[in-house]
């Protein structure tokens, strides 16, 4: 493929998603494009111009240009803090109202089911929303069907007992349909200012996606979550690596960085 064709496609992906792909990520995108070009009739166009003229191809490209690595109870220390402190506190503040939880770069759903199963095990009612830019991972979330590699033997293992009723052969997981149906799923592009974020959320998980964005994009998304989405007294969790890179100059007013042991998170102050 021509260098220009590839760099135009990478620039298009960045404009559409905010993602700035690293070299290793770019080679995965290149492999997809090479494969895709053999499957379709480009009608004499290069792939970039084909996408520009065939809008449905853009979704196909974007569904294959994201990194979707995830697993159940990832970063289990965060789930421990939710279990012992934050979820019970939220419930006692909210009374009979459900705790509203948003997994904002949900990938195939292991994160939102982990949150749902943990809260349910504590007798806490939730309203759960899973969103992603990638529609094929959201379909996987809807199916609730996972291979054994979504369950880890080290990180997350402390909470794998919550999955045990749903293990099928070889430690694969099938989340029951009744539970799958409780999760609202939507395509939301975090990078677009016009995207409509869920309202009045008590707990936002937005983990392992900031790593792909510029500092300016991280700042804008954090601000939009605080302005449009997060309820007073609500919490935002990034991955531990990501929160370590958030400089105090990009933390929106009204949001405080808190820690409990080695777990860091954001809390929206009550005004
Ligand atoms: C590595 S996965 C993280 C999954 C899960 N949050 C976790 O930490 O295990 C990153 C996800 O971010 C999604 N993503 C990338 N850019 C996005 C954007 N602009 N808006 C919404 N989701 C995006 C990808 O499709 C992918 O599913």
UniProtKB/TrEMBL annotation:
Keyword S-adenosyl-L-methionine assigned: yes
GO biological process, alphabetically ordered: methylation
Chain ranges of the CheR-type methyltransferase domain: 1-242
Entries under Pfam families matching the protein: CheR
Keyword Transferase included in the entry's annotation: yes
PROSITE patterns: CHER (PS50123)
Source organism superkingdom: Bacteria
SMART domains found in the cross-reference section: MeTrc
Entry keyword set: Methyltransferase, S-adenosyl-L-methionine, Transferase
Coiled coil location: none
GO terms assigned for molecular function: S-adenosylmethionine-dependent methyltransferase activity
PANTHER family recorded: CHEMOTAXIS PROTEIN METHYLTRANSFERASE (PTHR24422:SF19)
Protein name in the entry: Chemotaxis protein methyltransferase CheR
Species name: Treponema bryantii
């Amino acid at each position: 493929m021509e260098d220009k064709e590839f760099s135009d496609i990478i620039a298009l992906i960045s404009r559409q998603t905010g993602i700035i792909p690293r070299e290793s990520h770019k080679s995965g995108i290149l492999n997809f494009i090479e494969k895709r070009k053999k499957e379709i009739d480009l009608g004499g166009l290069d792939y970039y111009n084909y996408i520009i003229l065939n809008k449905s191809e853009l979704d196909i490209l974007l569904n294959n240009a994201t990194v979707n690595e995830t697993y159940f109870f990832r970063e289990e220390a965060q789930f421990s803090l939710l279990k012992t402190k934050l979820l019970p506190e939220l419930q006692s503040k909210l009374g009979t109202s459900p705790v509203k939880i948003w997994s904002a770069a949900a990938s195939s759903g292991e994160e939102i089911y982990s949150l749902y199963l943990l809260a349910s095990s504590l007798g806490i009612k939730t309203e759960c929303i899973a969103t992603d830019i990638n529609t094929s991972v959201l379909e996987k979330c809807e199916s609730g069907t996972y291979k054994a590699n979504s369950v880890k033997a080290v990180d997350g293992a402390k909470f794998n007992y919550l999955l045990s009723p749903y293990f099928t052969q070889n430690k694969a997981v099938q989340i029951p349909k009744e539970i799958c149906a409780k999760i609202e799923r939507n395509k939301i592009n975090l990078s677009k200012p016009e995207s409509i974020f869920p309202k009045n959320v008590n707990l936002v998980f937005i983990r392992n996606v900031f790593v792909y964005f510029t500092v300016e994009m991280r700042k804008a998304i954090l601000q939009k979550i605080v302005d449009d989405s997060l309820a007073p007294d609500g919490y935002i969790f990034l991955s531990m690596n990501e929160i370590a890179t958030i400089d105090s100059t990009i933390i929106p007013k009204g949001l405080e960085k808190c820690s409990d042991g080695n777990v860091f998170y954001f809390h929206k102050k009550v005004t």
